[in-house]
Design brief:
Elements: H1 8-13, H2 17-21, H3 27-37, E1 45-48, H4 56-62, E2 68-72, H5 75-83, E3 91-94, E4 106-111, H6 124-135, E5 136-146, E6 162-169, E7 173-183, E8 186-195, E9 201-208, H7 212-222, E10 224-230, E11 252-258
Helix pairs in contact: 6-7
This protein binds S-adenosylmethionine (SAM).
S-adenosylmethionine binds at residues 6, 9-10, 49-51, 54-55, 71-74, 77, 96-97, 112-115, 118-119.
Length: 265
Amino acid sequence: MKGYDESTYGRAFADVYDDWYGDDPRADDLVASVAALTRPAEGPLVELGAGTGRLTAPIAGRLPDCRVIAIDSSAEMLDRLQARGGCERVERILGDMLDDLPDGPLSFVLASYNTVFNLVGEGRQLELLQRIAASLASGGYLAIETEPPVGDELDDDSTADSSVTVRHMTADTVVLAVSRHLGDRRLEGHFVEMTDGGRTRLRPWSIRWFDHFELATMADAAGLEIAHHGADWPTDADAFIPGPPADPHGRRVTILRRADSGIRA
Ligand SMILES: C[S@@+](CC[C@H](N)C(=O)[O-])C[C@H]1O[C@@H](n2cnc3c(N)ncnc32)[C@H](O)[C@@H]1O
């Protein structure tokens, strides 16, 4: 999308992010799982694309002895994170999740709901996994949460489809979800917010999605192995389910570790 770069999403969504996406029934399970799996003595925990800190704050609260680092490419998002109670000691990096990943060893790297899909440049998702593999502590984990788009029309070769649906509507406001598929698993769109008597607000987004099978291939190429792959966040390492998934659709939690870590669940 012409004019779109890695800071566009955060600038467009920071003011509504918590209202629109803050009510996530899975957040408590995510936080408990991350806290149980992180070994603070092995290095900092890094959250990629941490956004407004809706997850960073409770994670930092559960891990008082762990350095917690939040990376985001949007100053607007990080400003909100900084102002959020519970994030006072969180270290912030305004930058790119791949180019500005801190040096290891890292005890845990978290990429929550579809955050890695924001890395749209060719080969950048694989590069990210390679970079994390090189930075993880031997007992460290990378957790990636995704929900790939569904629909027969979203096969790899499809380029034709676009859609407009209603996200939200009141008597004086409507938010339309506009999207188009570019092929090669690239999708882009806008939330178009129109208010009676007010101005139209555009909230653009752009993603490259992958499914579990592509993630498994990228992980292997990066020197990572899948410790857990399931619909839910595991309570601890004893609850890992190595997969493959019974149902490849829906929201998925994939937890990876270095293939040379020697750790087995
Ligand atoms: C879908 S939001 C998720 C926010 C947070 N992880 C959560 O679950 O609430 C994606 C975040 O990634 C950030 N982002 C997008 N591209 C990025 C990049 N290349 N590097 C770092 N952050 C990025 C956006 O600014 C946004 O805050």
